Amino acid sequence: LAKTTQPISMDSYEGQEVNITCSHNNIATNDYITWYQQFPSQGPRFIIQGYKTKVTNEVASLFIPADRKSSTLSLPRVSLSDTAVYYCLVERAGNMLTFGGGTRLMVKP
Amino acid sequence: EPEVTQTPSHQVTQMGQEVILRCVPISNHLYFYWYRQILGQKVEFLVSFYNNEISEKSEIFDDQFSVERPDGSNFTLKIRSTKLEDSAMYFCASRGGTGATDTQYFGPGTRLTVL
Prior knowledge:
By secondary structure, chain A is mostly beta strands. Chain A is 0% helix and 50% strand.
């Protein structure tokens, strides 16, 4: 599976939009891009998944360029409760998930 | 919203003892997983289970580990003789199918502390 690279940490302030970019240069044709959120001592929680272009749900947007070698998770107007670790994963249907180190997002008041 | 549940939330055991961690996957899901996360480290895959057998396992999942689906609802992870390095959060996950958009849903985890 394609290796993912994302920033180790990011800081933001309440009310700001946060964009976390992940690179996955070796993504294969049948791979999907999935983002999970994890709070301390809790299980990872699915946020959003996409294949290409843009996907939006009630919590986030996911932008994937045409070459699919990167993706950007966009969190609109973050609050303190969005402080968490965010994982970008390249997922192949049916396979187990391979987590990297994730991006530790700190939202400040 | 359906969710994966796990019991107990915290298990403390002595080294060498057997532990069984329990999970109730989402009711119509067919594929089940165990992951673990040592404090401060990445979430690591242990094993996947489908149709009453293991479909894939990692190097971590050695002979000390076993999984079982004893009835139509529970999915268990047994560690036969715990070691200090087994101390971690253990997460169960389930998914409905193997389609590209069939997401894995994780439980809240069991914190295992081996003394």
